[in-house]
Structures are given as structure tokens and as C-alpha cells.
Protein 1
Amino acid sequence: MHKYPNSDKVTIKNAECGNQPTTKLPECDGISLICLSSGLLIQNIEQSDGVFHVYATSSIAEGTCPYCGHKSKKVHSRYVRGIHDLSILGHSVVIHLGVRKFFCNNPQCDKTTFAEQPGTEVFRYRRRTCRCETAIARHGILTSSNSASRLLSLIGIPVSSSTILRDLHRMRPSS
Ligand SMILES: [Zn+2]
């Protein structure tokens, strides 16, 4: 009888891993590459008190007015939004998104300024990414709001039971 009954499995796994080609990505550029589909450019990542702080901006040079569709490069001002994302290894993730406010130069448009909405994961007035809201909604549907709140907190997505209920009531059933 072997002292370590699973030693054969470990040896095979190590051999397989050794044959795999490895790709080393640059520290920040690699993560940005993975997140390209999100339309965000990650500038820096810090960890403090068990929370990953991701500092990001839009990867697009110009903004598109959501009211008239006119494109603009003339920046009016900048501000930072704090948006919760899915956790990494059980640690909470907060995206500090630098948002630009642009002038709309279209004389036909009723608005003079607009804030950019980069990518497909970040929406206006939302405090969580789309994928984070989806994960919360799925937990809320499968269990009670109290259980979902406790489970999500354990995996680094802190959300109250009342917020889960409010989000579920806001969802429209698919037709
Ligand atoms: Zn406009």
C-alpha cells in the first residue's frame, strides 16, 4: 500500500502541466487585454483590507451623446464612480471608474453635456456591473433574499437582502 495513494495522479497532472505552453502577460496590460470587451482600460490595481481596488478609464477616445448620437472629444469635466464587480478569489472588487463628461456640439440636441458610458458592463446610475447584478439576481431567484445576501457576502459580494428584493422587483420578465 502506498503512503500517498494519489501520488500517481499528482505526477500525471504535473507532467501534463509541464507540456503546456505558457504565456506571460504584462502585469497591467494583460488584465486590460482580458477586459477589452468591457471597453475599460485598467490603469492600476491595489489591494487593501481584503478588497481589490481597480482603477480604470474608458478605452475609447471620444464620447457618444446618448440623446442624439453625436460624437464629441471636447471634455467638460471628469469624476470618479465606484462600481462593485464580481469578486476575485472571494475578495470584493471595486472599480474606480474615471468618467469624462463631454460637451455635445450638436445644435439640434437639447443637452449641452453628457457623461460617457463605456463598455457593456457599466450602466448609468448603477452601482454594480451588469455581470454582478446578474449573479445577485440568480442567487435571489434560487434562494430567499436573506440566504442570497449571506451567501454572496461569503464570496465577496456584499449586498443587503432589501437590495436583492428591490432589484428582483425591478426586473422585467422576458416575453
Ligand atoms: Zn447630444
Note: Residues 7-26 have pLDDT under 50 and may be disordered.
Protein 2
Amino acid sequence: MLKIGSVCFSNPLISAPLAGISDFPFRELARYFGVSLTYSEMISSAGICAENDKSKNFTFVKGEHPISAQIFGRDPDMIAYAAQYFEDQGADIIDINFGCPVKKVSKQGSGSALQRDINRSKEVITTVRKAISIPLTIKCRLGWNPAEENYLEMARIAEGEGVDAFCLHPRYAVQMFKGVSYWSKFHDLKPILSIPIIGSGDIKTSEEISFHLNEYPVDFIMLGRGLMSNPWIISDYLKKEHPPLLETILMHYDLMLQYFDNELLVSTRFRKFIGKYVKGLSNASELRVLGNELTCRDDLLELFAKINV
Ligand SMILES: Cc1cc2nc3c(=O)[nH]c(=O)nc-3n(C[C@H](O)[C@H](O)[C@H](O)COP(=O)(O)O)c2cc1C
């Protein structure tokens, strides 16, 4: 039985925290296709402490379970406050972001800049662990750069401080999202951890899910960018029936429309998804141009008429 703390899972597939992407409709779609756990987008602890509506709007929808609320920040008490807030809101798991390399986040000392400061990282973990009673996980990189690799130290601290699972995106912060992810690093991680390990990075097909689960000592696979263009990798891996391309696109759009209740806003937000969905089709560039002009649901239906599948 797959477990993180007291939370049980039917399969090893998790949808990743993706800022600007993993909103409620995206998570619902991933859950429909079969992931057993979804993550919120990263949420600012400072925003929660300041009662910032934007941060609170990132929150999950009641009844959406299991869900992990991912928090970023650098101040232990503020992260602990936000963690308590999401526990009260009904989150099943709290995750702390130690991996975001984006300048806006790291220049405040959060995300991967927090992982660079091992003493503060420990203080954050200890403070948050004491503040909540639901499972706690952390999501890390290998380190800031190869000379400052510290994921093993982070893992030891995490397990020692009562963290319930360790998620690793095996790239250095300086790589951002480019270059290779070093999955072989999981072989060094496994011997020092008894808590579950979540592997994240570059999994784009159901065959890659099986390969990585067999080849590397990870308990869960986290799917990020691969899901944005291809949610079928989940159902293919689980050997489940799934709706075809156009039905999937429309399902995603309609979930967004139900949630945001504003056709122009949804159409604008959907532009980034349509480009991914049509990737690989013979007239993808024409479809991308049309996708970038979406302003209403009818535009999407017109675009469908140009898709040959
Ligand atoms: C657009 C985008 C947004 C992301 N946002 C977050 C985030 O909010 N929190 C986080 O921990 N990681 C975030 N990540 C990293 C992913 O969760 C994941 O670890 C990484 O993209 C590698 O996996 P992939 O190759 O399957 O995408 C983001 C990545 C992308 C591309």
C-alpha cells in the first residue's frame, strides 16, 4: 500500500505543482485521468499572512482530495502560519517548496535559494512540522549548482525532523528547467531514507513512467510538463479508457469555464494549453496561431474544425 504519512494512494502517479498551470480545473483533469494525488500551484506564505486574496484564491476547492498545498517563503513562522491555514482549509498534505529557481522567488531567499541556506531550511522544516498534524513533504533540487550539491543533507534533515516524503527534481537550480535531470542521483538517496521518495523530471510517456519506476528507487512519479500536452500518459499507464483529443481539450476548457465563470478570461488562459495539446499535429503552427487568438468557446470549436485526427 502506497502511503505518505497517514494518506493512502491507489497508484504512484502525482500531478506536479505548476505555477500558473495547476489550478483547480487542471487538477480535476489530472484526477479524471487517474493521478492519485494533485498539488496546488506554489502559494506565497507572505501572501497568506497578509490575507492577500490572490494567494487565498490559489487555494483548493473543498471536496478535492487528496490534495497537497505547496507553500513557498523564507520565514519559518510565516510558512508555518500558511501551513496551519491550509490544514484548517482541509489540505491532506503540506509541501514546502525548496526548488523554485525563478528569480522572482529565489531573490527573496525562497525556493532553491532557501535550500542553499541549510540552517534556515532546517529551521523552516522544524517549525512547520511542529505547527501541523497532517503529513509534511518537501520538494527539493540537487542543490544550487554542482559545487553546492546538498540534496542528501536536505534528505537527512527532512527525515530526522519528521517529514513524511521527500520529492526530488534532480536538476541544479542553475539549470532552471533545461539540460538533463540526473535520475541516477536517486540511487544515492535511497540508502539514506526510509520515507517515500517522489521523483520529478522529464517523464513524458507511459513507457517512461514504467521505466523510471523499475529502474530507480522511487515510490511515486510526479508528472509536470508531460501532462500539459499529454494527460493520456496517466490513463495509458493505468490501462484505463480515456477520451480522445478533442473531447479532452473541451473537457479541460469547460472545467475552466465552470470554475472561473468568465469566457474571455478562460479563453485567454487556455491559449497556453492549446499550443501544447496540438503539438505534433501536422498543422500545429497554424493551430497555435488560432489558439493564440481564442476569445470565446466558439473560437475553440472553430479551431477544432481545422484539427485532423
Ligand atoms: C511552468 C512551470 C511551473 C512550475 N511551478 C512549480 C511550482 O509552483 N512548484 C514547484 O515545486 N515546482 C514547480 N515547477 C517544477 C515542476 O513541478 C517539476 O518539478 C519540473 O518541471 C520537472 O518535471 P517535468 O519535467 O515533469 O515538468 C514548475 C515547472 C514549470 C515548467
Note: The first strand starts at residue 2 and ends at 4.
